[in-house]
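Handout, page 2. Input:
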Amino acid sequence: MKILLVRVSSLGDVLHNLPMVADILRRHPGATIDWVVEEGYVSLVRLNPHVRKIFPWALRRWRKSLGKAATRAEIKAFFRNLREEEYDYVFDTQGLLKTGVIMGAARVRKGGKKVGLANGSEGSGYEGVSRIFHTDSIPLDPRTHAVARGRMVAGAALGYAVDSAPDFGLPAPRADSRPAFLPAEDYAVFFHGTARAAKKWADANWIALGHALAPLPVLLPWGSAQEHEDAQALAAHIPNARVLPKLSMMDAVAVAQHAALAVGVDTGLTHIAAAFVRPTVEIYCDSPKWKTEGNWSGRIVNLGDLGSPPSSDEVIAAARRLLEQRP
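Output:
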């Protein structure tokens, strides 16, 4: 059986799609699984050794230069490479027009199926026009967890129940894979940055947490100029804090992978720490907890909810409890 997964973005959503791979192979051990993903997230998907071929989709870059012959040639090459394969099933778990177009271009064998979402989740960017590319559209409860969505679509199409904890297929941290820029000792990482201001946790709370965790080193990553300023402001008030240099996506993933404790707002890197089953406190300030909470391990604590951020005392208590559980 040959299967193509279409989930191109964003970081957290691509991550949440990974358990589909283990589910499919558990029921169909001989299956080969390929994936179409935005080029910036290829290295994340590549961490799962059971994905055979990855097709980089570069729409974010292409749309800036659609008038150039080189860009048009690259787009043409993408679709040509995609159509060299023939699949039994193509799954689009994003439900957008652009992912529907990719699904529509993919080739299926005689009797093959193109399967997608019949509806979106609450607050999702689902586009109903994507259904025109489906042979089968799977309806889901609008409050289906982000990890469960893709798993349930595949299960419905392939005839199995989703009845196990998600397996993201990510490698366990190894000492020889620890980047040199990380401390040799245990550390906490605060994923404080987020593109939407309403999802931020107050600086005073981060500072109180940093003091409570002393003398544990606290790493402060950042991804934009504003987040860099925010990290420097926090570091000025947190003992043993260190503002990290600008990191590649995979270096940031390594920070999450090796952390003794990760604390973060509802953002991709926080969810990556949870997927690696690192001791993680997920903080929800202005997004619904049901949608992305890490609910597959006792090493993950989810606090707050839409419009109801947790207090610093709640997060400190959870962080201390997780650190006490370390082997």
